[in-house]
Design a protein that fits this description.
Length: about 250
């Protein structure tokens, strides 16, 4: 069903097009056209192959949108992904002693914590849809993102130097994976009458076709197989700022 989700979202956009352009009075819906900036937050639960490697994650990022008066919205996005749980079987096995501990270059117990890191760069096309259930300027949001996704294992080292976890040996442990993804999302868009409060919230899913980038894993003495079908299901929220020119040509000095 997840594989059919992007097509379903596209169909919803097409079906909503006639209704979204009109209010109850037959006039064009008063969406505020122009450019917007958004500070984005999200939380994800892993799915598909990704659930075998990582636990839950979160994202923070920045977006720029172009909003049309008709409700169409176009955007470009950067998101940074982090997670504290790594489930990868065999990770660092060759660096652990019989008691499951790692020793640093000075012979001390090394405090190394594996974590998830990721980057997403996407473009989006979406539609703001008016409804009698919401006031003017607010409504449903349907959007599709397309772009690039990279994730890897990051080793948080608390003051212990371990040569195997430094370049160029780090490539044998970090499980770097890259590929293309789509992000269907649906939610609610709010624009207060005074124009000072704008935000959006909703649900989304990452659907990635990914390829391992490392030829060999030093700890398991094997290579990752690919391509991988990685995914997530989660929630998103964003605080939105409207970008507009100065409304006055008067200069103020302090």
């Amino acid at each position: 069903m997840m594989a059919r989700l992007p097509a379903s979202i596209v169909c919803l956009i097409l079906l909503a097009t006639p209704a979204a352009a009109q209010t109850k009075s037959g006039d064009v819906h008063p969406w505020s056209p122009g450019y917007q900036a958004a500070i984005h937050f999200g939380g994800q639960v892993p799915a598909r192959a990704l659930a075998d490697r990582y636990g839950t994650s979160n994202t923070v990022g920045f977006s720029i949108y172009k909003v049309e008066a008709s409700g169409w919205r176009w955007g470009c996005h950067y998101r940074f992904q982090t997670g504290s749980e790594v489930r990868e079987p065999g990770l660092l096995d060759n660096l652990l002693d019989d008691n499951g501990r790692m020793v640093d270059n000075e012979g001390r117990i090394a405090l190394v914590t594996p974590q998830q890191r990721g980057t997403l760069l996407t473009l989006s096309a979406g539609r703001l849809i008016s409804s009698s259930a919401f006031r003017d300027g607010s409504g449903l949001l349907i959007e599709m993102n397309f772009g690039f996704w990279e994730h890897k294992v990051h080793f948080q080292n608390r003051g212990n130097r371990v040569t195997q976890l430094e370049d160029p040996y780090l490539a044998g442990y970090d499980r770097l994976t890259r590929g293309w993804l789509v992000i269907p999302r649906v939610g609610y868009y709010h624009d207060a009458p005074n124009g000072l409060i704008r935000f959006q919230v909703g649900i989304e899913s990452f659907l990635g076709r990914m390829q391992p980038q490392r030829a060999w894993n030093a700890d398991t003495l094997s290579s990752d197989s690919g391509p991988r079908n990685d995914g997530t299901v989660g929630l998103f929220a964003a605080w939105i700022l409207r970008l507009k020119a100065r409304s006055t040509n008067v200069d103020y000095y302090h």
